[in-house]
Design brief:
Radius of gyration of chain B: 25 Å
Number of helices of chain B: 11
Helix content of chain B: over 70%
CATH class of chain B: Mainly Alpha
Structural class of chain B: mainly alpha
Order of helices and strands of chain A: HHHHHHHHHHHHH
Shape of chain A: flat
CATH architecture of the largest domain in chain A: Orthogonal Bundle
Helix content of chain A: over 70%
Number of strands of chain A: 0
CATH superfamily of the largest domain in chain A: MetI-like
Oligomer: heterodimer
Order of helices and strands of chain B: HHEEHHHHHHHHH
Number of strands of chain B: 2
Strand content of chain B: under 5%
Strand order of the largest sheet of chain B: 1-2
CATH topology of chain B: MetI-like fold
Distance between the termini of chain A: 58 Å
Strand content of chain A: under 5%
CATH superfamily of chain B: MetI-like
Largest sheet of chain B: 2 strands, antiparallel
Number of helices of chain A: 13
CATH topology of the largest domain in chain A: MetI-like fold
Largest sheet of chain A: none
């Protein structure tokens, strides 16, 4: 009797198809990496030309269209203030909304409703957020263009991101911790403030940093709310300010090569700020991750 | 007895809620509910105030807003319509989606099923970096590098494939619908790839192993066990990417030639979008002009709302995707 093993070599067609798909999948990844490398390479290469002390410490005041020099100090100041103000508005609201969804919502109709609209809010185009602040704050209430108006529009873009990331972190907090606290007679709100939030703290901080990094690069809403200025304006509540993304946009729509150079350096500065925030966020989450502790 | 205790059934629930109230839970609960309601109020306010500020401009319009192609709201007799802008927005976004989705699905499969486990998370992070680059930087890159670079390939397409209407036309430029769509495609790729990756990772492991045990090749396993499971997730991801592409402003504002025509010739100097027009036209807009831009923003808001709602409804129907939706 001869025993036949059931295992036969793979037919040519099946193997060829498998290898072809493998090649396509690797190719897709390579294609996705090409623009990233190209963008980063050009930003670094062209941005370093003007990345000097003058750029970081001077504004564009009295710099004519054909003049070299000038800098983005006014824009950097503006961006930092606007993003800080936006965070001060968006983080408490986002945090408390997430607390409601996780701790109080319990599948109630209102909580499902809010949860759905948080998702929808994530998809609101940034320019629409800018238009809203323009229509509401500047046209209806008659407020001036200012850094604060820009911060309002940025906060609208930040809120849903903060809610989602915080919500995810709160859901990771083990229920036993809450129950232990209740068993000791601690009221629910003190349990949330003293037990749940501290446990999720690093995760929440990471989420907030990522949200900040996301809005720091937004240009469109600022265009409609902060307007333009070439001078330093350190007061975010009065008069037009500048923002780093706006600066890049403004300089890159000018025809002169020196302006394009400034735009690249502005882009480099902006990417450095965003990457720094991203890195800090990753470090915080890595430093306190349960996997590392366990 | 029980009649004296309002709105609750059974004794313990009442005493517990009374206990909570006595310990200051009320204010905190009020704050957190209030924050949620503020979010809802903002969404409502966006719609209301855009409508309110759009109405005067729409009344001053001497043409039909939905069908008119030209955009001249700053004239003494304002003539403007959303026609050409909406066309450009939809066509460029769909083109971006067509370019981006296959690559993004490939990237997602690479990270979820092909790359070595140790490398996968790092490579995933590298793709996520694409999303961390601010859109104005893509715009600068697009206008200084991609626009001149695309001239060659565009001429090639026009020379050899002009019989396809998309690639026809006499004048070929770098600042075209095709270049703008390409930049949009790059910008939405990380979004589609990230969601698809999460969904593919959640494909049932047992079915994958069963397919492999029966002698399936890796591709056959993916086709049988991963793709059917992931299809709704990929559709959702594509819709979310589409919504993002439609609202993208600055990158395309620098690239679009800002014409007000309707043409499928994606290599010729035409193309514009609602968002790009707002960014380019806001500086010199009169009060009526601002109203007109707000009206166009309202249209954009409604379109993206519809697209995003569709995406969320697809994902909400499937409980197993719960984590990928975030």
């Amino acid at each position: 009797m001869t025993v036949q093993t059931g295992i036969q070599p793979l037919s040519f067609g099946r193997r060829a198809k498998d290898q072809a798909v493998r090649a396509l999948v690797y190719l897709a990844f390579a294609i996705a990496i090409v623009p990233l490398v190209s963008v980063l390479w050009l930003v670094v290469k062209n941005g370093l030309k003007r990345f000097d002390l003058e750029f970081l410490t001077h504004s564009m005041r009295n710099i004519g269209a054909r003049d070299a020099g000038g800098g983005a100090y006014h824009a950097i100041i503006g961006t930092l203030e606007q993003v800080l103000l936006a965070s001060l508005i968006a983080v408490p609201i986002g945090l408390l909304t997430a607390v409601y969804l996780v701790e109080y919502g319990n599948g109630r109709r209102l909580s499902r409703f809010i949860s759905f609209f948080v998702d929808i809010m994530t998809g609101v185009p940034s320019i629409v957020a800018g238009l809203f602040v323009l229509a509401f704050w500047i046209l209806v209430l008659g407020m001036p263009f200012s850094g604060f108006a820009g911060a309002l529009s940025l906060s609208i873009l930040m809120m849903p991101v903060v809610v989602r990331s915080t919500e995810e972190m709160l859901r990771l907090v083990p229920n036993e911790l809450r129950e232990a606290s209740y068993a000791l007679g601690v009221p629910k709100w003190r349990t949330i403030v003293k037990v749940v939030l501290p446990t999720a703290f690093t995760g929440i901080v990471t989420g907030v940093m990522l949200a900040v990094a996301r809005v720091a690069g937004e240009t469109a809403p600022l265009l409609l709310t902060v307007f333009f200025t070439d001078s330093i304006n350190e007061d975010p509540f009065n008069g037009p300010q500048m923002g780093l993304p706006l600066y890049v946009f403004g300089q890159s729509s000018l025809p002169q090569d020196i302006a394009i150079d400034r735009a690249w350096t502005g882009a480099l500065t902006l990417i450095l700020i965003v990457m720094l925030l991203n890195l800090v966020a990753r470090l915080i989450s890595w430093w306190r991750s349960p996997a590392k502790r366990g | 007895m029980a009649t004296s205790l309002p709105k609750t059934e059974g004794g313990p629930a009442v005493s517990r809620s009374a206990f909570r109230r006595s310990r200051g839970d009320g204010p905190f609960r009020f704050l957190s509910v209030g924050s949620g309601v503020i979010l809802l109020a903002i969404m409502a306010a966006i719609a209301v105030f855009l409508v309110v500020k759009a109405i005067p401009a729409l009344q001053a319009n001497t043409s039909h807003f939905l069908t008119e192609l030209t955009w001249n709201p700053n004239a003494t007799k304002p003539v403007f319509g959303i026609g050409a802008l909406a066309f450009g927005t939809v066509v460029s976004s769909f083109l971006a989606l067509i370019i981006s989705t296959p690559v993004a699905v490939g990237v997602a499969l690479f990270i979820s099923h092909y790359a070595p486990r140790r490398l996968a998370s790092i490579l995933g992070y590298v793709v996520d970096l694409l999303a961390a680059v601010p859109s104005v930087v893509y715009g600068l890159w697009g206008v200084t590098f991609l626009v001149p670079f695309m001239l060659g390939p565009s001429k090639f397409l026009n020379d050899y494939l002009a019989w396809i209407p998309l690639f026809g036309g006499d004048s070929v430029v770098g600042k075209s619908m095709l270049t703008a769509s390409l930049v949009l495609a790059i910008m939405i790729l990380p979004i589609i790839a990230a969601i698809s990756r999460e969904v593919f990772l959640q494909a049932p492991k047992l079915q994958e192993e069963a397919a492999l045990a029966l002698g399936a090749t890796r591709w056959e396993m993916i086709r049988m066990a991963v793709l059917p499971f992931g299809r709704p997730g990929v559709i959702t991801a594509a819709l979310l990417g589409l919504g993002r592409a439609m609202g993208e402003t600055i990158a395309v504002a620098l690239i679009f030639p800002a014409t007000f025509t309707i043409s499928f010739r994606i290599l010729s100097p035409n193309g514009n979008s609602i968002a790009a027009n707002i960014a380019n036209g806001f500086g010199e807009a009169t009060p009526i002009g601002r109203g007109a831009l707000i009206a166009s923003g309202l249209v954009l808001f409604v379109i993206t709302l519809v697209v995003n709602t569709a995406a969320r409804l697809i994902i909400a129907r499937r409980k197993e995707y719960a984590r990928a939706a975030a």
